[in-house]
Amino acid sequence: MKSDYLSSGPSFAEGEVIERIEAFRKRRPRLREEIVTLAHGAGGKSSAALVDAVFVEAFRNEALEDLGDGAVLTLPSGERLAFSTDSFVVQPIRFPGGSIGHLAVHGTINDLACSGAVPRWLSAAFVLEEGFPIATLREIVADMAAAAAAAGVQIVTGDTKVVPRGAADGLFVTTAGVGVVPAGRRLAAADVAVGDRLILSGPMGDHGMAVMLARGDLAIEADIRSDTAAVSDLVEHLLAAAPATRWLRDPTRGGVGTVANELARATGLGVVLDEQALPVRPVVNGACEMLGIDPLYVANEGRFLAVVAADEADAGLAAMHAHPLGGEAVVVGEITEQPGATVVLRTAFGGTRIVDMLVGDPLPRIC
Questions:
Q1: What is the per-residue pLDDT across 28-66, written as a single tens digit (0 to 9) for each?
Q2: Residue 127 pLDDT exceeds 90
Q3: Given this model, what pLDDT does residue 218 score?
Q4: Statement to judge: residues 203 and 238 lie in one domain
Q5: Which of 237, 233, 240, 14 has its CA nearest to residue 113?
Q6: Contact 104, 213 (CB under 8 A)
Q7: Is residue 141 part of a domain?
């Protein structure tokens, strides 16, 4: 029997479709460059190739090889912790809806939450350029303190380095975080099953487009605000209502399209997205169209993608709708057996297309 997503696609034969998909999914990103480029930091194919060929190859261990938002570690006592780290180099450092300080706290909190942990403690390290205004630094640190307090997280240690003028573009921030994984909780790509539903917690692309327009390089004016927020409380609401939730990921660099590909490759299963269900604000969609950018690949900083068991999807969605951050959550797709390890988009016109990972990111320096 034909699969739905193949039945109304291109005009060539079904066997040829399957052969093309099989050839496509066997391709893995390979590191070909001899120098680092901006594409290596964009979260797409080039980033995956760099991580695999350099960092995973050098540091290889079981916790690292999961390549999740954070490492889940078991203590000798049997308790489990999640540990994550991230660096933030966004320009401009303040944009509609937030600042580099908000991102530095929210980003690490969200990585811990999507690892299944309740975030507890953060560290913060600052690289400051000579000449950076102390008043601006105070404002960014105040943003961090407010974001951490709102999420019930403490910043308990840190570091400061100052580099010569011109060496750091003002301010870089690195945060690391530790969270506690509740007993019995498990989130793993290995548990994802055919028939599971994909829930996206809110509209795509708000953060990336807010930062892009805030740079002032384009003659585009639009009321777009970053979605930066801590999603940890929303995650807890989802997991309480849908305890069989399989997997979570926050679609930051590379957006929903990239994390969907990471899911497909980690599980070996198909990820089918419904174009008509994918939420994008009209103003964001309009800005993306003017720039020739697909919202699927635009970064978010206050959203997550969840794989939820089919029989719990309605309960999980209802719980998210009752939370201030989850009012626009929606089921955007499902897990299928075929085409394996591939993401396809069921279009509004009844056809399908493969959603690949981008080589780079059309919007650099957005986090």
A1: 568 889 999 888 887 778 888 998 899 999 999 999 888
A2: yes
A3: 76
A4: yes
A5: 233
A6: no
A7: yes
